[in-house]
Amino acid sequence: MQPTVAPPESVTWRIHLDRSMWVAGVRALMLQALHPIAMQGVWQRSDFRSDPTGRLLRTAHFVAVTTYGSPDEADALGARIRRVHRALTFTDPGTGRRHRADQRDLLVWVHCAEVCSYLETTRRAGLRLSEEDMDRYLDEQSRTAGYVGLSRDDVPRDLAGMRRYLAMVRPTLRVTPEARKVVRFLLWPDLPERLAWAAPLKPLWFPVGAMAYTTLPDWARRAYGVLPETPGARAAATAGLRMLRSGLDRVPERYYNLLLDEATVRSAKDAERRLLEAGYRKRDTARALRSFARSRTRPPTVAAAPRTRSTVPEPAG
């Protein structure tokens, strides 16, 4: 059995282990909230309002386990998620219709909003990704969709397919009062008890939320209207993302791990052990799990990826 769900030489590792993923995760939640039915599911049946930071950390844990967790660990997490989703229903207040949390169209939207946000944010933060890399990433992530109950063919597996899907879903997206409240939560969330020590640093979070917000599609920002539209905001957000990524890259691993859930850190340590046992070696110049490469092959590095002017697909409008 392979030691990790995705191999270290995959595009998935290059993207998911990039430290700009903190902004990408927030952006994904903001983008997901634009689907009015999916938003009602979150609003009615999750603890988002009481623990928005916890929701972000759980998303980070899912990404971690389905990237460098063991196949057994990912299967167990996926089974737990599917079991929870099967038991949850909610009501669309506009139509009175009952919906299931594991409804296929909702799961597809959540998946697509996440992977698009991960691509857009890490690329703008400075991670070099060619169009071929992005196609490979979407194909790799189609396997991850299986953990929430979808098949690989339920979700787009390349950029062209993602563009078609987003063009199709765009007319159904809009800002509801609940979605606007979610964005405000994400810009200034309550800290969980485990991060109480970081309360004096809470003002540093706002730029993270603001960068996530500013990287949303233009129409989405105009519809939300939560932050003022200022000239040059998108360029400033891109510059800010690159500065944040550079700064986080300089944080020693032992301090950076304080931001993560204990289970996520434990999964990373287990992955390190399994990879070493499987014949991977640590590279002296790399960080954490990004340090692994097969002794007989060298996976493509960020620096080796060709430049590209292609744009990550977004819901048009």
TrEMBL record:
Region called Disordered, residue ranges: 293-317
Enzyme class: oxidoreductase
Domain ER-bound oxygenase mpaB/mpaB'/Rubber oxygenase catalytic as annotated: residue spans: 13-244
UniProt KW keywords: Oxidoreductase
GO molecular function: oxidoreductase activity
Pfam families in the record: MPAB_Lcp_cat (PF09995)
Domain of life: Bacteria
E.C. number(s) listed in UniProt: 1.-.-.-
Protein name: DUF2236 domain-containing protein
Native species: Nocardiopsis alba
